[in-house]
């Protein structure tokens, strides 16, 4: 960051021996992105050839569901740079709209994509997520994509080769196996897929936080405005993001899971900001510092059996907490036989949870949450 004071003087440098290189776009490879994953540091540019669009293999004239993309404001891609591993690339909002507009104009023939300002995350596997300032370029848009397209056309054998290390699903584990793994001296940060039934939405604390509208980092209060330490901005637009704790169980064990940001939307079907806005619209007398009760749409998930991708973090390994962070909630249709087995063996527990939620006899947590 360069700061200028009121008495700074700027003058044109007519002749200088220093020559600054033109560096409009700086793309990174798999290793650099993997090292930066979840570090909440710099944002990165990435270029590669498209393998899948919303799970569909590329073909000329590929048609996607326009209404679905418009409603979700999201496009999921699998992209590969040269002969590196395939990466998951998630485009949101404006970046998703920009991609879809250009991809549709190409009649589904676009093969190369470059996206700027990406945040490397790990949702079970290394993924790249677009941000508000991200821009999307395809095939012939700029020199970088034209150069890559030329390589792609000349190296079909390499381009069609798939190194699928990062496409492999996280290892399945029960809650008990997760707790056992966390106690091992040799355990490292890892991601697992577990099936569990939601027993309660934990009350007593806010189920959301106010984050930066661009990077989603928790906002801090300034004298008159909200500020973001990560972006370095002294005035930002605050947006409600999920910070929701669930009590869940499987056949033998019980655990607490935390949903952050977009993962809450995957489970509850709505953005946290929408639910908060709905509350204040329905309660005009509510103040800014009032506790917003847990919405009914969240309570309605009690009794559901879902698959969660969870992260065993350094805090778990250090014994500071057993609460697991959810990085992705899989849709109900991918549950399959394993979910049915959990439901069959845990019918008494599940039906009891649903009955408590319906009758309100034993679910004091839900009662208090609903009353604020």
Descriptive overview:
- The radius of gyration is 23 Å and the shape is globular.
- The strands form 3 sheets. Strands 1-3-4-6-5 form a 5-stranded mixed barrel, surrounded by 4 helices. A 5-stranded mixed β-barrel has the order 9-13-14-16-15, surrounded by 5 helices.
- The protein contains 13 helices and 16 strands.
- 29% of the residues lie in helices and 27% in strands.
- The longest helix is centred in the N-terminal third of the chain and has 13 residues.
- The C terminus is likely disordered.
- 30% of the residues are buried.
- It is α+β, with helices and mostly antiparallel strands and 372 residues long.
- The chain folds into 2 domains: 138 residues, OB fold (Dihydrolipoamide Acetyltransferase, E2P); 201 residues, OB fold (Dihydrolipoamide Acetyltransferase, E2P), CATH 2.40.50.140.
Give structural attributes.
single chain; 372 residues; alpha+beta; OB fold (Dihydrolipoamide Acetyltransferase, E2P); five-stranded mixed β-barrel; five-stranded mixed beta barrel; 13 helices; 16 strands; 29% helix; disordered C terminus; Rep_factor-A_C; zinc-finger; zinc; DNA binding; metal-binding
Lay out the secondary structure.
Elements: H1 30-36, E1 44-53, E2 56-57, H2 66-72, E3 74-80, E4 86-92, H3 93-105, E5 112-122, E6 126-130, E7 136-138, H4 143-154, H5 156-159, E8 171-172, H6 175-183, E9 190-201, E10 208-212, E11 220-221, E12 226-227, E13 238-249, E14 254-260, H7 262-268, H8 272-282, H9 296-299, E15 305-312, H10 314-317, E16 324-329, H11 336-345, H12 347-359, H13 364-371
Parallel strand pairs: 4-6, 8-9, 14-16
Antiparallel strand pairs: 1-2, 1-3, 1-5, 3-4, 5-6, 5-7, 9-13, 9-15, 10-13, 11-12, 13-14, 15-16
